[in-house]
Amino acid sequence: MSTDTMPSEEAVYDALRQVEDPELGMDVVEIGLVYEISFPKPGTVKVSYSLTSPACPAGPEITQGMVDTVRALPGVETVEPELVWSPPWTPDRMSDDAKFILGIG
Known about the structure:
CATH architecture: 2-Layer Sandwich
CATH superfamily: Fe-S cluster assembly (FSCA)
Mean pLDDT: 93
Number of strands: 5
Order of helices and strands: HEEEEHEH
Strand order of the largest sheet: 3-4-5
Radius of gyration: 14 Å
Number of helices: 3
CATH class: Alpha Beta
Low-confidence stretches: none
Largest sheet: 3 strands, mixed
């Protein structure tokens, strides 16, 4: 796979919108799980993300979904998922649409 054309940060976020949290039925971007996208070296995308709780049973499924989805983008050879707990996820990180759907706020 060529690393000449790496996807943009926006393209990575768009791809991650295909990954759903199976418990909430919404994508990981809308619910605010994706904290940062970076490109540490050619061909590599690092996704810093969190989960709604450390005991989230869907954590491995969400992580694998993010890795598979981003790796499928042109120019991506390696995906480095980084699970972070600081700052902790809160419903405040959710989009307004997600809050509305879940009746929050």
